[in-house]
């Protein structure tokens, strides 16, 4: 029995102009990605990746998302990510952070990444309240959605 | 041996506006590039070939302040892209002094004859393509293999292909042509981005290899190892046949005791065994090629 191989792609969404929220949820992001796959790779590309494709996690505040797709079709997804310039109605680009085979590894990487981000930003804040709020919003990692 | 760190982006177009350059360079730092080359293009075909022996090529732009600003984060090189139509450029290049001030020399042929010359005899390091001119120029198999043997590299710019779907089609066509004609050897990716929004991280660029017909390894090498090779080749072209070289790291001190020889001896000489060995290997390779 061979298990089904998945790939988890951790991406960061970088908007053209800095904004607080992207107004995206996992379903809308998945829809946008599938539309883009169809635009660049056609019906074949869409068909190869559509099964098993899912956005597992998206954080509106830190703009990090995890995309799951099948191992066989990962090229079709990872190769179009740099070409996207419009996400929903926001001008934004994707930055691939990590590609992992299990979601645990992706999680580990993101936690590390966020800690680095916190180290950079914490120094710029003044009050302890703001720091706590930021810490909470950045490190929240809620998987069941 | 000159130290450079991955990743590389060998085409950042020069912009007169410093704030644009700063934004571009800080975005490059953020996405993880360590070595970049600022590009300035020069159209040889527009100049008249009247005066002989005179300087045709422009001086490099002054970017010392940018270098100082990004001292620890980025290594900034300078590159010139020569657009040309016929082989007359070879003579102008051989007499030029200004060309030696650039780290990299790229050729951008406009005609088929120029493309063949570029692959077989051009005294530069890099062959690039103008996405605006479309995909009329396609390299043929013989010329491509000669170029690979000479150690020339071919450049694929990704920023125009992000901006416009026609450019994208043309760049993919050019890239797939490399794939059919010679298994995509000696290819590097570079940005050519005029705005920081068009820049992508090195791993994203490596992923683009899939649509450009390169394998995963080749894609990774196109932003990493091949760029390093290209840089070394360019350095060896600038220095001539070199076994080792000494680079000053501090102010020049003139010593009184030995004024007749080595007047420009430097404070710190860096010439450890590695450097010597590596440059020697390089020189031997060059000799074999010649």
TrEMBL record, chain A:
GO MF term list: hydrolase activity; ribonuclease P RNA binding
Primary localization class, coarse: nucleus
Any one of the GO BP annotations: tRNA 5'-leader removal
Protein name per its UniProtKB record: Ribonuclease P/MRP protein subunit POP5
Purpose: Component of ribonuclease P, a protein complex that generates mature tRNA molecules by cleaving their 5'-ends.
Homology family: Belongs to the eukaryotic/archaeal RNase P protein component 2 family.
Lineage: Eukaryota, Metazoa, Ecdysozoa, Arthropoda, Hexapoda
GO CC entries: nucleolus; ribonuclease P complex
Compartment(s): Nucleus, Nucleolus
Keywords: Hydrolase, Nucleus, rRNA processing, tRNA processing
Pfam family, one: RNase_P_Rpp14
From TrEMBL, chain B:
Pfam family, one: RNase_P_p30
Keyword terms of this UniProt record: tRNA processing
GO MF annotation, one: RNA binding
GO-annotated biological processes: tRNA processing
Region (Disordered): 254-273
Xref: InterPro entries: Pol/histidinol_Pase-like (IPR016195), RNase_P_p30 (IPR002738)
Presence of the UniProt keyword Ligase in the record: no
Primary localisation category: nucleus
Family that this chain belongs to: Belongs to the eukaryotic/archaeal RNase P protein component 3 family.
Protein name: Uncharacterized protein
Organism: Drosophila erecta
Gene giving rise to this polypeptide: Dere\GG24670
């Amino acid at each position: 029995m061979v298990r089904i191989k998945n790939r988890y792609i951790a991406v960061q969404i970088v908007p053209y102009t800095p904004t607080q929220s992207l107004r995206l949820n996992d379903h809308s992001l998945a829809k946008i990605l599938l539309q883009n796959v169809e635009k660049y790779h056609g019906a074949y590309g869409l068909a190869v990746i559509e099964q098993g494709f899912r956005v597992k996690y998206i954080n509106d505040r830190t703009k990090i998302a995890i995309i799951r797709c099948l191992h066989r079709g990962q090229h079709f997804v990872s190769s179009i990510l740099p070409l996207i310039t419009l996400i929903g109605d926001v001008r934004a680009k994707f930055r691939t952070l990590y590609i992992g085979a299990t979601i645990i590894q992706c999680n580990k990487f993101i936690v590390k990444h966020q800690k680095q981000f916190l180290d950079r930003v914490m120094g710029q804040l003044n009050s302890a309240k703001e720091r706590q709020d930021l810490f909470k919003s950045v490190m929240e990692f809620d998987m069941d959605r | 041996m000159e130290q450079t760190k991955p990743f590389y982006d060998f085409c950042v177009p020069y912009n007169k506006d410093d704030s644009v350059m700063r934004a571009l360079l800080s975005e490059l730092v953020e996405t993880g590039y360590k070595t970049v080359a600022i590009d300035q293009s020069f159209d040889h075909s527009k100049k008249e070939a009247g005066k002989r022996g005179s300087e045709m090529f422009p001086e490099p732009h002054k970017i010392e302040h940018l270098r100082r600003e990004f001292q620890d984060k980025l290594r900034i090189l300078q590159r010139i892209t020569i657009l040309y139509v016929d082989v007359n450029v070879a003579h102008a290049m051989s007499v030029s002094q200004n060309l030696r001030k650039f780290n990299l020399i790229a050729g951008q042929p406009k005609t088929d004859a120029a493309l063949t010359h570029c692959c077989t005899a051009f005294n530069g390091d890099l062959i690039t393509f103008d996405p605006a001119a479309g995909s009329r120029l396609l390299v043929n198999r013989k010329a491509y293999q000669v170029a690979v043997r000479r150690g020339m590299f071919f450049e694929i710019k990704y920023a125009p292909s992000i901006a416009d779907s026609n450019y994208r089609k043309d760049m993919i066509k050019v890239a797939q042509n490399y794939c059919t004609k010679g298994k995509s050897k000696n290819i590097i990716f570079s940005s050519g981005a005029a705005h920081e929004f068009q820049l992508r991280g090195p791993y994203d660029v490596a992923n683009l290899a899939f649509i450009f017909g390169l394998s995963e390894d080749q894609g990774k090498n196109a932003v990493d190892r091949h760029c390093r090779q290209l840089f070394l080749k360019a350095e060896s072209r600038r220095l001539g046949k070199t076994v080792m070289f000494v680079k000053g790291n501090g102010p020049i001190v003139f010593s009184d005791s030995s004024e007749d020889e080595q007047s420009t001896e430097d404070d710190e000489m860096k010439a450890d065994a590695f450097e010597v060995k590596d440059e020697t290997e390089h020189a031997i390779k060059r000799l074999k090629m010649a």
